[in-house]
Design brief:
Layout (H helix, E strand, L loop, with lengths): L1 E5 L4 H12 L3 E6 L10 E5 L15 E4 L9 H17 L6 E5 L3 H4 L4 H21 L5 E7 L2 E2 L4 H4 L2 H9 L7 E2 H14 L7 E4 L12
Parallel strand pairs: 1-2, 1-4, 2-3, 4-5, 5-6, 6-9, 7-8
Helix pairs in contact: 1-7, 2-4
């Protein structure tokens, strides 16, 4: 299958692209940055999903919206409006088999930065809208909401022992997910799943379920 993934220059997007490539799929990647890896079945497009004209990629079977920013002053424009632009161009069309949005645990909890949380909450709501519109095509549409993930962008806390200890105190499984784990979820939800749609899947090592019972 042909897969279009946004935000493939690093982090979760790159891990998802490499997962699909390892399974023999053809991948088109889109990022504001140049490509950071090469593969015979990978094509990279440099574009800002919030501002630039979106490139001619051709028909795709799977669309994975991963590109995003955090506390940038452009969270709504990129994470929500840019994602809508991409989805309406490539995902809402005959022949699409699955659309996936990488949202965030913040979409449920409201934690982190205000515009970031709002942008990801909007993504989850928009996902449900898209799911209803592409269901007649036999296509699934879901969102994946990671909690903490071990990526370079989170080094501020993962490399700080004091902050990391505070995070682990409220994380029941006492760990964060790797980029590769999130990629496995993304692969299942799009390439394997055929019956679940309009759902937001939370992968946060139990943090949102943490509670303290006093009796």
């Amino acid at each position: 299958m042909k897969v279009l993934i946004t935000g493939t220059a690093r982090g979760i997007g790159r891990a998802i692209a490499q997962k699909f490539l390892s399974q023999g799929h053809t991948v088109a990647g889109m990022d504001i940055l140049p490509a950071t890896f090469t593969h015979e079945n990978y094509t990279h497009f440099v574009a800002d999903i919030a501002k630039d004209d979106l490139p001619a990629v051709g028909a795709v079977d799977i669309l994975i919206n991963n590109a995003g920013v955090q506390n940038s002053g452009e969270d709504i424009d990129t994470n929500l409006k840019g994602t809508i632009r991409v989805t309406e161009k490539y995902g809402v069309r005959d022949g699409i088999k699955s659309v996936l949005f990488i949202a965030s645990a913040s979409a449920r909890t409201g934690s982190e930065f205000p515009e970031y949380a709002a942008s990801k909450g909007g993504v989850v709501a928009y996902m449900k809208n898209v799911a209803m519109r592409i269901a007649p095509l036999g296509a699934t549409c879901n969102s994946l909401s990671p909690g903490g993930v071990l990526t370079p962008s989170n080094a501020h806390v993962t490399d700080n022992p004091a902050l990391w200890a505070q995070i682990m105190e409220v994380t029941p499984l006492n760990k964060w997910a790797t980029e590769e784990e999130i990629a496995e979820f993304a692969f299942f939800l799009t390439a394997v799943n055929k019956s679940m749609t309009a759902q937001d899947i939370l992968v946060d090592n139990g943090e949102a379920n943490n509670f303290k019972f006093v009796w």
